[in-house]
Amino acid sequence: MKSILIIAFSDLNHDARINRQINFLKDSYDLSIASFGPTTSNDFNSIALQRVKPGISDKIIGGIALLTNSFALAYKIIYKKNHYLKILSKKKYDLIIANDIETLPLAIEIAKGGSVLFDAHEYAPRHFEDKFIWRVFFSKFNQFLCKKYLPQIEAMLTVGQGLAKEYAKHFPVKPIVLTNANYFQNLSPRPTDTNEIKLVHHGAANPSRQLELMIDSMKYLDDRFTLDMILLTPPIANKKTKKYLDAIKEMVSNNPRIKILPPVKSSEVINLIHSYDVGIFLLPPINFNYKNTLPNKLFDFVQARLAVAVGPTPEMEELVTKYDLGIVSSEFTAESFAEAISQLTPEKIDYFKNKSNLAAKELSAESNKVILNKVVSELLAN
Questions:
Q1: pLDDT digits over 34-54, tens only?
Q2: pLDDT tens across 66-96, in order?
Q3: Total domain count for the chain?
Q4: CATH number assigned to the domain comprising residue 144
Q5: Same domain, 354 and 372
Q6: What number is the average pLDDT over the span 155-165?
Q7: Spatial separation of the C-alpha atoms in residues 379 and 374, rounded to whole Å
Q8: Which of 17, 239, 256, 331 has the highest CB neighbour count under 10 A?
Q9: What is the chain's alpha carbon radius of gyration, rounded to the nearest angstrom?
Q10: Are residues 98 and 146 in contact, defined by beta-carbon separation less than 8 angstroms?
Q11: What is the number of other CB atoms lying within 10 angstroms of the CB of residue 9?
Q12: Is residue 20 located within the same domain as residue 163?
């Protein structure tokens, strides 16, 4: 049986895309997963990677390396290359799947000329371009990583057409789109209560996502509408991000129509949100990746058989319009978003729920399983 190593600098408890990679491949290959967080399974070999916090000297030297364009040294320090090499170089693999740009140099060195499949979850050279500090320290660094290592991979995946086109425009790659669709769920739409319309949003509590806009939109909606937000703060989040969730909780503390709920495992999301009516997501395009996002939650809304309300993000708007799943606001403002949502009568919501039901099979992970297995089998055959 061919062996595959998946590397992800993330916690599998909250990384739906990596879990789908595992489930797509575990029955056909000898699978090893290197990731953060405790993970045990009989389906694969788990390699626990401990997050190594850089000391003060590492931060200083790493910062100087970034500013002086000493990017190979910067990578070694920032991502603890030698530490992880010792852990992951003990076995030879037929294929390595690297998730996100920070794992790619590590994967290529471990592969020693063998096959590497790169899954770019975002467009790395412009990842956090809205942040000045990131632009100063990491913009050129990520461009360097892409320029040096993308020519060395055998195949590449990414989550949407906008990202795929941008990578192909600047680097010698032709990414295959593997969406963030969730598994098909055998659920039925729930009828909408005429007296209460329940909105739901789930995802990361990150200041750049400006969750305040969805909260502010509630000011313009009548008392039939309630909003529950299921928010996650990553363990590696900085102090500003962790304080942001506290600020959001304080913001809604006096509004009985808005609740902040604790996060659940990615595998539990759909059953949890199935009891709601409308899945909402308003994301201002403050950086390239936000402008081109096609996120997990949109597909989760469909599998939960909800109506959908989004802002005019191009690929989300295209999907919602093509399958007639719900409404799209004309602008990325609380007023515009509320204006669009206010048009949702119980009858219209039930109509859109049924459209989600009709689209659920087509917009499920099962079609992506075929794509990934085809890519992997071709790489291993070569």
A1: 998 766 677 788 888 887 777
A2: 999 999 999 999 999 988 999 998 899 999 9
A3: 2
A4: 3.40.50.2000
A5: no
A6: 97
A7: 9
A8: 17
A9: 21
A10: no
A11: 19
A12: yes
